[in-house]
Automatic annotation (TrEMBL):
Lineage top rank: taxon: Bacteria
Molecular function per GO: FAD binding; monooxygenase activity
Domain FAD-binding: 11-326
Cofactor: FAD
Provenance organism: Trinickia soli
Protein name listed in UniProt: Salicylate 1-monooxygenase
A Pfam family matched in the record: FAD_binding_3
KW Ribosomal protein (keyword) present: no
Length: 397
């Protein structure tokens, strides 16, 4: 018997990476009766990253996992998403959010620290199902079983491996060869600081300032609007480092945005030296590798993209939900892989393309296709049954 089609709880699923997608994947598969172990390279939980947007399509998955209240309680629900000209400050397009997001997209829009989202997702995974300090080094196919080899010399066996190991996925390089993600030619200065640093400047809830080749995204990280966050993006020809980010030179940042509206210059001026990091933005071409046989790739392991639509984490969570539906419908991971890939390809291609173009909401836009998408029920069929949320009306609670 093929172990990948063993019934319910006897299939041993190994999820590689306890990041955004891996934690959700583990929680969703355990709910439908699978025996899941998550292997994470870090020794313990590390709440990394700066700010993040949780768009309504992502919030639907959090609601299904019953952790939406936590992020709603901690993060801010912007009243609107303003898009302004970088120099004149003229509003190019404003998308009403707050209560409007609930009504129009069926779920809220929230901005907060990435670590808060990550912690909320960690809380959905049983403690005994995460093995920390396990950096995957290799995979060996042994008949119906797959043996996992870790950098610490230990080994484990699984029937199915789900790669949620992010941008530099080890699983991906085992399957497809060691091809590094591509530097996009863009960098982002990311920083946050307390409200006092703004020295009385009024800052709207969520704004993207659009220049020709340079952009600044700014928002509050918390419900009380105490901590302010910005990501200032600009072109850079090379990234001469192995690291994803390096400490930023704030003088370089301020010089690069000196032609921006005075409000933006004041926001950037408020960042204390040492508080800003310069991130390289990586991507892969949209030839998605969803995996082969009993190894399945989700999230950044499958489709890293530029962050200009703020949809990377959303796509990882949508993947986890759609794969769960395919497993439920097909009853077998091998068949589920194809159903999952077919259900995801078109949407991922579109989000990847629009993110790369960096045009989303620059002018009048209908964002329904992104924010109104319901991954829990889209394209429902016997092979792809809908996932129902027990208390769909509880989103605002
Ligand atoms: C500047 C910037 C801003 C962004 N803003 C947003 C935003 O506003 N909204 C949004 O939705 N997305 C945003 N994103 C994207 C988002 O953060 C990622 O797309 C998302 O975290 C991907 O989730 P993942 O689970 O695939 O990978 P990750 O969350 O990166 O998790 C990967 C996990 O795998 C582990 N791992 C790696 N290798 C191994 C190994 N060999 N063995 C074991 N474990 C391993 C890692 O330690 C990590 O825990 C942004 C990205 C950037 C760069």
């Amino acid at each position: 018997m093929n172990t990948a089609s063993r019934s319910g709880d006897r299939v041993r699923v190994a999820v590689i990476g306890a990041g955004i997608g891996g934690t959700a994947m583990a929680a969703l598969l355990r709910r439908i009766g699978h025996n899941v172990t998550v292997y994470e390279q870090y020794e313990r939980f590390v709440p990394a990253g700066g700010g993040i947007h949780l768009s309504p399509n992502l919030m639907r998955v959090l609601r299904h996992l019953d952790v939406h209240r936590h992020v709603l309680f901690t993060g801010q629900e912007p009243g609107a998403f303003l898009n302004r000209d970088a120099v004149s400050g003229e509003t190019l397009y404003g998308l009403p959010l707050g209560e409007c997001a609930h009504r129009r997209f069926g779920a809220p829009f929230v901005a907060l620290r990435r670590g808060v989202l990550h912690l909320a997702l960690m809380s959905t995974v049983a403690r005994d199902s995460v093995q920390w300090g396990k950096r995957l080094a290799g995979l060996d196919w042994r008949g119906d079983s797959i043996e996992l080899a870790f950098a610490d010399g230990s080994r484990a066996a699984a029937d199915v491996v789900i790669a949620a190991d992010g941008l530099r996925s080890r699983v991906r390089s085992i399957l497809c060869g060691h091809e590094q993600p591509v530097f996009s030619g863009q960098v982002a200065f990311r920083g946050s600081y307390p409200r006092e640093g703004l020295k009385g400047l009024h800052v709207d809830d969520l704004t993207k300032w659009w220049g020709d080749e340079t952009f600044v995204l700014s928002y509050w990280l918390d419900r009380a609007r105490r901590d302010f966050y910005f990501a200032a993006m600009m072109p850079q020809s090379t990234w001469p480092s192995e690291a994803s980010f390096v400490p930023a030179d704030v003088d370089e940042m301020r010089a690069a945005f000196r032609h921006f509206h005075p409000d933006v210059r004041r926001m950037l001026a408020g960042a204390p030296p040492g508080s800003v990091a310069k991130w390289a933005l990586f991507e892969r071409p949209p030839r998605f590798e969803f995996g082969t046989g009993r190894v399945i790739l989700i999230g950044d392991a499958c489709h890293p993209m530029r962050p200009f639509m703020s949809q990377g984490a959303a796509m990882a969570l949508e993947d986890a939900a759609m794969l769960t539906r395919a497993v439920l419908g097909e009853g077998d991971f091998m068949r589920a892989l194809q159903t999952f890939a077919d259900a995801r390809r078109e949407r991922l291609t579109r989000v990847h393309r629009v993110s790369a173009a960096n045009t989303f909401m620059r002018g009048e836009t209908d964002p329904q296709w992104v924010f109104g998408y319901d991954v829990l029920s889209a394209d429902a069929s016997a092979r792809l049954p809908a996932l129902y949320t027990p208390s769909a009306s509880a989103m605002a609670a």
